[in-house]
Amino acid sequence: MTAEQPIRAVPEPGIGELRAGNLGVRLARTPAEIDKVQALRFRVFYQEMGASPDLQTAATRRDRDAFDGVADHLLVVDHAIGPGPEGIVGTYRMIQRDGAARLGRFYSADEYDITRVVNFPGRVLELGRSCVDGAYRGRAAMQLLWRGIAAYVFYHQIDLMFGCASLPGTDPDALAVELTYLYQNHLAPPALRPRALPNRYIDMRRMDPDAIDARRALGQLPPLIKGYLRLGGFVGDGAVIDPQFNTTDVAVVVKTDLVTDKYYRHYERQLREALD
């Protein structure tokens, strides 16, 4: 296992906070905030979703790894609770190419051959470790996270976003509708298509696609995956079982120029407001 990196908690200049009522979205500023992020992830992933902690994770009650030290951590903060660590109710982890270079790989490379993504000529951003406190899982918190990601994408001129997204459970046949639907309707073009590593590859084609009600299948997908698809996202070839996190993962790729013009106009205005 790679040694943990020193936490980078001070955001780069120009990324401010976007507000919606009591809730705000911004980058983590202190190690204490990242510690709270890791505690939130432990509570959601391990206590709520049934992930299996190793001894260190169980002892610290923190979900953390070496990638935390090379990432930017997006936060949703409830200012009614407090403006600092005490108010953190949601998070997303974002890793750029320079951060991955410090470890020699992106997180997704443990599950997928992402050579085509890494070789993309523009700026790439890996998204992951998304979670929201159970009391805040309505539309507002997720919209704020997407607003924060949009601001980050504009500020850093990101051309391609990617990562692993999870479906609950480790039985791919129980997810036959969702996996088959994704493969048949949202498979990434060959030039950008991640493929599950050979020793972890699970065929996503689990049933006759003609037997699938596409609208119902889309409705059954987790909100995060539906969010990627609404942005014009694609999935890679092959699912991966993650027994530690009790999930079945799919690779997701989103070219930022495929986001609708309406989305760009809206969030470009939000970014200008944040930077004023």
Structural class: alpha+beta
- Please report the total strand number as a whole number: 11
Name of the CATH superfamily: Gcn5-related N-acetyltransferase (GNAT)
What is the arithmetic mean of pLDDT?
Answer: 89
Fraction in helix: 25-40%
Low-pLDDT stretches: 1-13
Q: How many helices in DSSP terms?
A: 9
Q: Compute the number of structural domains.
A: 1
Radius of gyration, CA atoms, in whole angstroms: 18 Å
Morphology:
globular
The third-level CATH topology is Aminopeptidase
Q: How far apart are the termini?
A: 43 Å
Residue fraction in strands = 15-25%
> Secondary-structure element sequence?
EEHHEEHEHEHEHEHHEEEH
Supply the CATH class.
Alpha Beta
**Could you say what the CATH architecture is?**
3-Layer(aba) Sandwich
Largest sheet: 9 strands, mixed
What keywords describe this structure?
276 residues; alpha+beta; Aminopeptidase; nine-stranded mixed beta sheet; disordered N terminus
Short description:
The protein contains 9 helices and 11 strands. It is of the alpha+beta class and 276 residues long.
What does this protein look like?
With 276 residues, the protein is α+β, with helices and mostly antiparallel strands. It has 9 helices and 11 strands. It is globular, with a radius of gyration of 18 Å.
How is the topology of this model organized?
Layout: E1 18-20, E2 23-27, H1 31-48, H2 55-60, E3 72-78, E4 88-96, H3 97-103, E5 112-113, H4 115-118, E6 124-132, H5 139-156, E7 160-168, H6 176-186, E8 195-196, H7 214-220, H8 223-230, E9 234-235, E10 240-242, E11 247-255, H9 261-275
Parallel strand pairs: 6-7
Antiparallel strand pairs: 1-2, 2-3, 3-4, 4-6, 5-8, 7-11, 9-11, 10-11
